[in-house]
Amino acid sequence: MSDRLTQLLKLHAADPADADLPYMIALELGKAGEADQAITWLDKTLAINAHYHYAYFQKAKMLDQEGETDDAVAVLDLGIEKASSVGDGKALGELQELRRVMAG
To answer: Using alpha carbons only, what angle is made at residue 71 by residues 67 and 72, rounded to the nearest 5 degrees?
Structure first.
């Protein structure tokens, strides 16, 4: 386990309501090739903040890399719905573009 991951886990234990921490943990796990664990942490991020649009983006990318493209597209559809509901045009555009690429 990397020092960064260890530190992030400690920070998360101290502040479990901060959605940024499980997101960062997920990214670290993803870099380490631990996609299943990373996806679990992205789900934790979304449980804390259902409008954390980049968690949908990263989860979809990881699912797609694991060969679960249909699930990845479903995650993107949910992220698109959430981004649209709050008028986040930047996130909406990025989620839609990734969906277009995946749905190919």
So the answer is: 75
Question: What residues contact 13, with CB distance under 8 A and at least 6 apart?
Answer: none
Domain boundaries 3-103, corresponding CATH code: 1.25.40.10
User: Is 60 in contact with 53 (CB distance < 8 Å)?
Assistant: no
> pLDDT band at 96, cuts 50/70/90?
very high
Q: Are 34 and 15 in contact (CB under 8 A)?
A: no
Quote the pTM value: 0.94
Beta carbons of 49 and 65 less than 8 angstroms apart: no
